[in-house]
Structure formats: structure tokens, C-alpha cells
Amino acid sequence: MLGSQRVGAVAAVLLSEWVPVLGLIFGGCCTNVFALESLVRSVPKSGNLITFAQFFFITLVTLPSQLTSSGGLRARQVPVRRWLTMVVLYFCVSVLNNLALGHKVSIPLHIVFRSSGLIANMACGRVVMGKRYGRGQAASVVVVSVGVVVATLASVSDEGAFVGESLVGVGLLALGVVFAALLGLYQEQTYEAYGKHWQEGLFYNHVLALPMFAFFYRDIWAQMRALTRESARVQVPGVGALHVQSLWAALLVNVVSQWACASGVHRMTSMSTSLTLNVVLNVRKLVSLVLSVVLFRNPVTPGMVGGCLLVFAGTFAYSRFSRAPTATVSKKRD
Asked: How many other β-carbons are positioned within 10 Å of the β-carbon of residue 162?
């Protein structure tokens, strides 16, 4: 009887922690992809504006959690140099992924390519953190790699005259995947050393990046004008007299859903390993891929389907073969 009560208590705790997190990740991230595709279909080169809006909104929303009763900032639990390193990596990932959409990269390929983070995760884990992986894991990564190549070639060849520009987009995505892997491993190491301060991380990862957008202010201003120019006035459901510009509404949905998505990812990073996070995010990307194809009628070639299946099959095989890798990670404070 006592044993069953303990099992029930553990299950209740797990559900209370995991259900909200998974809701934020799947609900927020999938909605974010929907709004993102609506934006880039009308204004393809709007990546810098989208990224800036996301960072600015998340900074405003998370600021109250970091304020004391007197109005000052709470004492940090993690050294600022740790957050600065994450900020640079996170900023690069966000900018590169959004810029890639302006170079004839379709949303399905965008999703499939970002799902290949397993490759970079293993490579960076081995080189940077000294982790070791089994043969099954290595074989799974090979499957993922083949899937990415197949999907990429199928998508690029389908673009015809835009092959050169598509390859630029693929290069941006590849670089973003590497930075994302380094970010995930560094976050995992930081939370192990300093505790699960995911709210602090969410705030500082965004507020410290805002000055970096000064380098892109001309692009951001031009993209704001393009968004206004391409927007259609639409009526707000249930409010007869109120009309809004469609693309600005899509941008608002995008930034709010990005906040939900980022909150879920940061919280899950503090609860699990980089590998578990990678698997969950790949499942979410599979759902996003299906929604993109169904809702936006994106063309999907046999090569894209085959590559997609290989990527996700390799990811799940990797999780099955995974054992706790040995890693030379120091838990001493800086």
C-alpha cells in the first residue's frame, strides 16, 4: 500500500512538471512555425525583424520575474559570463535560422534540417565535453546524416533556378545547427553546476542580446515598412468594427508563441539532459512539418519524404541506444 502511494506521488510530481512543459513546447513552437510561415511567404527577408521582435517581447515579459520588491534586479545565481556565452550562441542560432528563410529554403526543409541537431550534438559532445557514445548511437547518427543529405538534395533540385541561393540558406542552417548543439551542451553544463535557474536564463539570454540588433537597425526598419506595405486589413473575429493588418497580427502571434516555446525549452533544459531535449524537440518538429504540409500545401517530393523518415527514424533509434555517456564535466563554480 505504501509502495503504491509512493509511486502515485512520484507520478503526480512528474505529471505536474512535464505536462505544462510539453504543452508550452508543442503548443507554443507549433503555433510559432505557423505564424512564421505566414510572415515569410509575404516578406521572405524579414528574419531580423522577427528575431528582434521575439527578443524584445520575451525581455519585457520575463523582466518582472527578475525584479525585487524595491524595483532592482535580483542577485544572479549564475555568473554573468556564463549568460554572455549563451547569449552569443543563442543570438547566432536565432538570426541564422530566420535569415535562412530568406534564401529560398522551404519550411519543410527548414524543419528537417534543424532536426539534424543530433549530429552536431554528438560531435560537439565528443570534442568539447569528452562524452563517449556507443556503436548504436553512431549508426543512428549516420542514418540521420543520410536523411538530411537526401532531403536537402531533393529540396534544392526542386528549386531549379534558385539552387545557388538555396545552398546559401542550407549553409546558414548548418551553421545554426552547430551553434544550437554547443548552446544545448553549455546550458546542460551550466544547470548542473549552478542549479535550475531557467527563468533567469530566459531573461538574460534575451535582454543581453538586444544591443546586438543595433548592427541590423537599417534592415529592421526596412522590414517593418515591407511588413506594413504587404499587409492586408482584416477584421478581428467577434469585434465587428476592429480591423488589423494581417502580417503585424501574424508577427504578434509569432512573438507570443516564441515566448511560450522558449519558456518550455528553457524549463525542460533545467529538468533533463541535452539528449532528451533533442528527442522531444524532434518530435515537435515532426508535428510542425505535418502541419506545414497540410495547412500551407507545401510541395513534398519523394526525396523529401524519404529524407524526413530517415531523420526521425535515426533520432528515435539514437534515443533507444542511448546510455548515460561519460563526460568530463566540471561542476565547480567559476
From this structure: 15
User: What H or E segment, with its residue span, contains residue 235?
Assistant: strand 233-235
**Hey, CA dihedral for 10, 15, 16, 22, is it positive or negative?**
positive
95, 42, 173, 115: which is closest to 289 by C-alpha? Answer: 115
- C-alpha–C-alpha distance, residues 47 and 96, integer Å: 9
Tell me the CA end-to-end span of the chain in Å, nearest whole number: 46
* pLDDT at residue 325, as a whole number: 45
Which positions ≥6 away from 202 have C-beta within 8 Å? 58, 62, 262, 263, 266
Q: Are 334 and 81 in contact (CB under 8 A)?
A: yes
pLDDT digits (tens, 9 = 90+) for 62-99: 999 999 988 889 999 999 999 999 999 988 998 888 78
Q: Are 90 and 209 in contact (CB under 8 A)?
A: yes
Average pLDDT, the chain: 80
CB atoms under 10 Å from CB of 122, counted, come to: 22
CB 182 within 8 A of CB 59: no
Q: DSSP letters of 9-65?
A: HHHHHHHHHHHHHHHIIIIIHHHHHHHHHHHHHH-TT-HHHHHHHHHHHHHHHHGGG
Query: Is this structure's pTM higher than 0.85?
Result: no
214's CB contacts (< 8 A; 6+ apart) are none
* Residue 161 in this model has a pLDDT that exceeds 50: no
Q: Which of 25-34, 108-117, 177-186, 256-265 has the lowest mean pLDDT?
A: 108-117
| β-bridge mates for residue 316, sequence order | none
CA distances 312 to 135, 164, 293, 297, 319, Å, are 18, 27, 16, 21, 11
Find the Cα–Cα–Cα–Cα dihedral 140, 143, 149, 150, rounded to 10°.
-150
Please write the tens of the pLDDT for every residue from 175-197. Answer: 998 898 899 888 888 888 998 78
- Residue (of 277, 61, 55, 283) closest to 187 by Cα position: 277
